[in-house]
From TrEMBL:
GO annotation, cellular component aspect: nucleus
CDD domains in UniProt: B3_DNA
Higher taxonomy: Eukaryota, Viridiplantae, Streptophyta, Embryophyta, Tracheophyta
Primary localization class, coarse: nucleus
Keywords tagged on the record: DNA-binding, Nucleus, Transcription, Transcription regulation
Residues covered by the TF-B3 domain: 15-111
Subcellular localization, as worded in the UniProt entry: Nucleus
Species this chain originates from: Lolium multiflorum
InterPro entries assigned: B3_DNA-bd, DNA-bd_pseudobarrel_sf, Plant_B3_domain
Domain of life according to the entry: Eukaryota
Name of the protein: TF-B3 domain-containing protein
Molecular function GO labels: DNA binding
Length: 149
């Protein structure tokens, strides 16, 4: 279940970024890169707060688990995030980590075009109630990606 947040008016500094290509079941447990697990290794957060990058109003709380070798996975809560954002095998996700368990995710479809989940909304009231509930993409008919804000 997403949690509400209104403090994302200014994007914090990105501390770490990585790309994840979804393979197999996109709603299943997802292993994060070893370099990221090492980066947060001293802290080993048990929960991560995910949001779609263009939507600062909702956070998806996802359990982070570790195996005996220190490999890090997104577990409980990931399925809801993946289902809500209609993730599919072959999609590419760009994760940005801001510290304090806070991460944003940019979603690119199988054509390598960024998906837009909020549409063009003018008022904060509409954005609060509708943000992240629309799925579209920013591709033209010839599958060329158009610039994204």
């Amino acid at each position: 279940m997403p949690s509400s947040s209104s403090e994302m008016d200014v994007e914090p500094d990105v501390l770490f970024e990585f790309v994840l290509v979804l393979k197999g079941d996109p709603r299943g447990i997802q292993r994060l890169p070893d370099s990221f697990a090492e980066y947060v290794g001293g802290v080993r957060p048990r929960k991560m707060h995910l949001r779609e990058a263009s939507c600062g109003y909702y956070r998806w709380i996802v359990d982070a688990i570790y195996d005996a070798r220190g490999k890090m996975y997104l577990n409980i809560g990931w399925e809801k995030f993946a289902r809500h954002h209609s993730l599919e095998a072959g999609f590419i996700l760009l994760f940005s980590y801001f510290g304090n368990r806070d991460m944003s995710v940019k979603v690119f479809d199988e054509r390598r075009c960024r998906r837009d989940y909020h549409g063009d909304m003018d008022t904060d009231d509409r954005r609060t109630t509708e943000c992240c509930f629309f799925a579209a993409n920013t591709c033209t008919e010839v599958s060329a990606c158009s610039p994204h804000r």
